[in-house]
Amino acid sequence: MAKIAVYPGSFDPITKGHLDIIKRGSKLFDKLIVAVLNNSQKKCMFTFEERVEMLREITAEMENVEIDAFSGLLIDYCKKKRVNAIVRGLRAISDFEYELQMAQMNRQLNSETETIFLTTSTKYSFLSSTLVKEVAGLNGDISEFVPSIVLRELNKKLKGDE
After folding, report:
1. Residue span of the structural domain in which 106 resides
2. Residues making up the binding site for substrate
3. What are phi and psi of 6, to 5 degrees?
4. How high is the mean pLDDT in each 10-residue block of the chain (162 residues)?
5. Which of 47, 71, 100, 120 has the greatest number of beta carbons closer than 10 A?
6. What residues does substrate bind to (predicted)?
7. What's this model's pTM, rounded to 2 decimal places?
């Protein structure tokens, strides 16, 4: 049986921290599904379709990485896709508290799916999508924090080219 994991998130925008977790997670599983949350209640800078497309472009060379989307409960998505594990990135202790609660709830809802925590690489431990958007919005240089595709699309958004 193939070991399949899902790395869920809103990815608004995708950072090099996300990409680091995708690369490292893809080495641990036969297949890693990067699942973009489609939540109409959440105000995102990038549309759902834009986030999916950027991830497809960024991960095109990664043979065992698949980009998909979901809405609703993650655990229901895991059952549907026959996922063995949920991959989550941890930056700090504050992340751990929230992620532990989510992992325990998911385990209660489906004991067949484990949550695997990957600590972020030190150079990305402070990085978040929110912080990237704030710095970019104030004309700060975010080129070392996001893939070039994201930088290009973020600059278009901020200049109103769309």
Report:
1. 4-159
2. 10, 42, 74, 88
3. -120, 135
4. 93 96 97 92 89 97 97 95 95 87 95 94 92 93 96 88 58
5. 120
6. 10, 42, 74, 88
7. 0.93
